[in-house]
Specification:
Layout: E1 11-12, H1 15-25, E2 32-33, E3 48-55, H2 71-83, E4 87-91, E5 105-106, H3 111-115, E6 118-123, H4 128-135, E7 139-142, H5 151-154, E8 159-161, H6 167-172, H7 179-186, H8 192-209
Parallel strand pairs: 1-2, 3-4, 3-6, 4-5, 6-7, 7-8
Helix pairs in contact: 4-7
């Protein structure tokens, strides 16, 4: 928790994050928008037909966090997609139970690099969704009534499903997120390290000159 009485600079990746951070910190001044380092070197999008990336969350709580609802829906949706002839490749959340997904190809690259070859991605909406959307991949979100997802993450989804029977049509009709929704979620793409350094540098100079 930062010392609120001594805050001199608040940075965030995007307009959506800026609003969240300002509200959380009680910050009444301008939040410097710098973008996300994960978008500084995005892979080139070269999708392969019928290749679907499954983006998992976590199915069991541990000291670092709770389990996310919706895993059974995602498992059942993946089965429906495979039965329809889709090739499933799984991008595992770092805390996910690998055994649940071993019947499919599990990516050795990680979700963002792997997404560059996916025709579409489906998963439990989370922080990786806006980055995958920035690659150019259409996204379908698996939503559960118990799952709380920020609007800016849902906005990069082409659609959401709440039953596995909806999965095939949702994937077949999915479209990439709009540039506006991507900007709202991840901010300016490329150059975030330079912008962050510049923000720190200018703030330090102003403090030293005071």
């Amino acid at each position: 928790m930062p010392d609120r009485s001594r805050l001199e600079l608040v940075t965030a990746a995007s307009p959506a994050e800026s609003a969240v951070f300002a509200s959380y910190l009680g910050w009444k001044h301008h939040v410097r928008m710098v973008g996300s380092a994960q978008t500084d070197d995005l892979p080139e999008y070269t999708p392969q037909a019928d290749r679907v990336l499954v983006l998992t969350s976590v199915t069991r709580p541990d000291p670092t966090g709770d389990a996310a609802p919706g895993t059974q829906l995602l498992l059942d949706a993946a089965a429906k997609l495979e039965a329809a002839g889709k090739h499933i490749v799984v991008g595992l959340h770092p805390r996910e139970d690998r055994k649940l997904w071993e019947q499919y190809e599990i990516s050795a690259l990680g979700s963002v690099p792997e997404s560059a070859t996916a025709e579409c991605a489906v998963g439990i909406p989370g922080t990786v969704f806006p980055i995958v959307a920035a690659v150019g991949v259409p996204l379908v979100g698996c939503v559960d009534p118990k799952l709380q997802v920020p609007d800016y993450i849902l906005d990069v989804c082409s659609s959401t499903i709440d039953s596995p029977e909806q999965a095939v049509n949702a994937i077949d009709t999915a479209r990439p997120a709009s540039r506006g929704d991507i900007f709202s979620a991840v901010g300016p793409i490329g150059g975030s390290a330079r912008r962050l350094y510049s923000a720190w540098h200018s703030t330090t100079r102003q403090r030293d000159a005071a």
